[in-house]
Each structure stands twice: as structure tokens, then as C-alpha cells.
Amino acid sequence: MSQRRRRIFNAVLFAFSGALAAFGVYLIYLHLNASFYDLLLDLVSGIRNQRLFYAILLLIFAIYPALAFSRSKPVKERKTVAVVSCYGCDYREVRDFQKGDYVFKKLGGCSACDSEQYISAIYSIPISRVEEKEEAL
Ligand SMILES: [Zn+2]
Asked: How does pLDDT run across 97-130, given as a tens digit for each residue?
């Protein structure tokens, strides 16, 4: 799912939850401010308790997505990259980390000048950011 789609999905879910919650609160309001007719009806049907039950059910349904979303924040996958620099020029390349890489490891002659290339940094970045970068390019 693309980020934009996810944002729309979240917005729809948020609106839906909000509507459910509002309706639930309204039902509770009706429960607390029952009209005489409701109370009379309640003697026969027990409809007030039923309404309260639905109200609580609605509130649970409204809150559940929020809980589910906050809990299941996907663990962002990361990848390790190494920055290749050159002592002689300002050559700079970010490539995937390779086994045996370490900072200041010498990599041999530069293709642009005759100085030596070395690894100047190793770090990890979230893969989503890599994808974004690739999309931007
Ligand atoms: Zn160079």
C-alpha cells in the first residue's frame, strides 16, 4: 500500500471511528436522559439496557482501530549502507554494506583521480526512505 493510500485509509478509518464514537455517546446520552416514554417502554421491552449495550459496543468498535493501529506500528525494516569516499577528490558513493566492510577500510584506486578510496561511514537507514529516494530520482 502506498503512503498516500494509507493516509486516505487512515482518514476514512478515523472518520468512521469518530462517527461510531459520536453515535455511541449519543446512545449513552439517550440512556441518561431517557424520556418518560422511553422509561415506560423500558418496563415492557428492557430497551434502555439494550441501547446501553449497543452504545458500549459502538464505543469499543470505535476505539479498537485506534488501539490496533497504535500497537501494530510496523517495525521498519532497515538496511545497512556504506559511504565510499576518496582521499583525493570529493567522490562519494553510498552503496549496500558488504561483508567485511569497516570504516576507513581502503578500497583501492579512485576512478576519477589516482588517490585511494576508503569507507568513510557505515550506517543503517529505513528501507522506506530508500524507496522514497528511488521514487524521487
Ligand atoms: Zn578520487
From this structure: 999 999 999 999 998 898 999 999 999 998 875 5
Q: How many CB atoms lie within 10 A of CB 43?
A: 9
Domain that holds residue 105: 78-136
**Do 67 and 104 belong to one domain?**
no
**Closest alpha carbon to 84 in 92, 73, 74:** 92
For the record, the C-alpha cell of 102 comes out as 569497516
CA of 83 to the centre of ligand 1 (A): 14
Q: Distance, CA 135 to ligand 1 centroid (Å)?
A: 29
* Ligand 1 center–CA 126 separation, angstroms: 29
Does residue 62 share a domain with residue 22? Answer: yes
- 100 CA distance to ligand 1 centroid (A)? 22
pLDDT band at 35 (very low <50, low <70, confident <90, very high): confident
Query: 87 alpha carbon to ligand 1 midpoint, in Å?
Result: 6
Structural domains of the chain, count: 2
